[in-house]
Amino acid sequence: MLKKFCNYFVICAVAIVSVMMLSACSDDKDETQSDSIVGKWKTTYVKGWEKENGTTVDSWSESIDSDDVEYYEFKSNGKFTCSDDWDEYEGRWSYSEGTLSLRYDDDDAEKFSCSVSGDKMVWSNKGKYSEDGDTYEWYEEMTLSRISK
Description:
Order of helices and strands: HHEEEEEEEEE
Oligomer: single chain
Largest sheet: 8 strands, antiparallel, barrel
């Protein structure tokens, strides 16, 4: 439970910083890529690491258990839904220059490097911040499989 809370805290912190650093723009290639994102997806695999002051303190590489699967539905109107066995979240999504941006209805936001190949989508993000004289870094990559278009 503590690991999930720490991961959530790190993801939120990086998402806030990412939102401030990135801007969106569009071109025809982005529209084609956006079309390939539309549909229903489920998480299947996750890997990553966390470092404190340059030392790896945690790493993982694992298939997602059926109890931990998250489902995403990306609609062509720019809306999305994210759900698991306990919660459901809604918001708006956009894609630009290899970056998938998610803005939840509660104003939380996340940005991921994103690639789609057929029925496989891979998201990744990383971050670094300092707090109380310590430096923290993290990287996470998530693989999703298409359920339907």
